[in-house]
Amino acid sequence: MADDKSALLEQLRIERPAEVAETAQWPKWVAALVAVVAIGGAAAWLLMPRGVSIGVATVALAPADVAVGPGTILDASGYVVARRQATVSSKITGKVVEVTIEEGQRVERDEIIARLWENARYWKKGLDDLGFCTLRSTSPIVPVMVGSEGLAFRISRDLFDLGVFAIPVPYPVVPRGQSLIRTSVMPSHERDHLDRALDAFALVRARYDFPDFDPDHLPVAAVEDWSVLFPAQAEKPAAASPPASRSPVRPSIARPSTWRA
Predict the structure, then answer these.
(1) How many Å apart are CA 79 and CA 15, to the nearest integer?
(2) Which domains, ranges and CATH numbers included, belong to the chain?
(3) Band of the pLDDT at 5, cuts 50, 70, 90?
(4) Distance, C-alpha 246 to centroid of its chain
(5) Are 203 and 230 in contact (CB under 8 A)?
(6) Which residues lie closer than 8 Å to 77 by C-beta, 6 or more apart?
(7) Residue 198 to residue 131: CA distance in whole angstroms
(8) If you compute the radius of gyration of the chain from its CA atoms, what whole number of angstroms results?
């Protein structure tokens, strides 16, 4: 009887093919491979160097009639930073091809930056020796204080006739009574160029009366002064200053159609 039962059970047995048995093992291998990749990725993420954070500052605009203190009028088109950190621009004026300033780089004599600062120091000293107020400028963009809006345009035109291009900066770029002449030097300027420009400034210095300026206490005029270009304006009474609680109202003064009266 026992032999009969064993024979029957043997007949009911189902043989599993060898390839099926091997195939049943692949989910385990896939799971193991995924685990290894996940562990390796986590380790790489933990060991990789972190990026350098870039500080960002927000600048609040000051009203045109508020004196912001002595300084230089600067039209910035971007910022130069170390190549290993970033290259940031506030205005897209073109495509950045290469940044040639390295972190920790030393400026050698006769390089472009060295020539720029040599010219800047020479130019500012020359203007200071002539008696101009340059607002303690420490950049290659050196302001020359004039005061009167009309006088700034007149001097700019006279300098142009003498072969020097220097633009006037009147109100509302600066407060009333603080107009200036914006000058700037480049590393390509030769010493002869700067000397000839200083000669031109010496001529206009002797030609016009320049007020004395205290860089720490610059005056703020109630109205614009175009009397140099329009002498009839000097005969009109000055308008009263607007109340402090109201928005400043610009006086209705005709603007010159040309630089020369």
Answers:
(1) 78
(2) 112-212+224-230 (3.90.1150.10)
(3) low
(4) 32
(5) no
(6) 89, 90, 91, 93
(7) 12
(8) 38
Rounded Cα distance between 229 and 73, Å, is 24
Question: Residue length, the chain?
Answer: 261
Task: List for the chain the helix, strand, coil content (%; round to 5).
Answer: 35, 5, 60
CB 213 within 8 A of CB 133: yes
Q: Is 147 in contact with 132 (CB distance < 8 Å)?
A: no
Q: Which residue in this structure is represented by tokens 């562990």?
A: 39
What pLDDT shows up at residue 178? 94
> What does the alpha-carbon distance between residue 244 and residue 231 come to, in Å, rounded to a whole number?
30
3-state secondary structure (DSSP) of residue 22: helix
- In angstroms, rounded to a whole number, what is the distance separating the alpha carbons of residues 180 and 178? 6
Q: For residue range 211-255, what is the model confidence (pLDDT) as tens digits?
A: 999 999 999 999 998 888 887 765 555 554 444 444 343 333 343
> CA–CA separation, 84 vs 52, rounded Å?
9
* Main-chain dihedrals φ then ψ at residue 241, nearest 5 degrees: -70, 145
* Mean pLDDT on 116-137: 94
Which class for 156: exposed (0-12), middle (13-18), buried (19 or more C-beta within 10 A)? buried
Q: How confident is the model at residue 149 (pLDDT cuts 50, 70, 90)?
A: very high
